[in-house]
Write a structure and sequence with these properties.
Layout lengths: L3 H8 L8 H14 L22
Length: about 55
């Protein structure tokens, strides 16, 4: 089993989620369906070292 955050962390910077903007979009859509997800700014998804640009 893997958490939603783990899956998103692994996909960050890949062809699936190539930039922070796409991450924000996907995360918000997931959060609308899952009230257990924290606000994205309370996670490390946008600060991960996997991002190659400053989007």
């Amino acid at each position: 089993m893997a958490s939603t955050l783990t899956v998103l962390e692994k996909a960050a910077g890949s062809a699936f989620i190539p930039d922070r903007s796409r991450m924000r979009d996907i995360y918000q859509r997931l959060r609308d369906l899952d009230d257990g997800l924290l606000p994205i700014n309370k996670t490390s998804l946008l600060t991960t070292s996997r991002w190659t640009t400053t989007s």
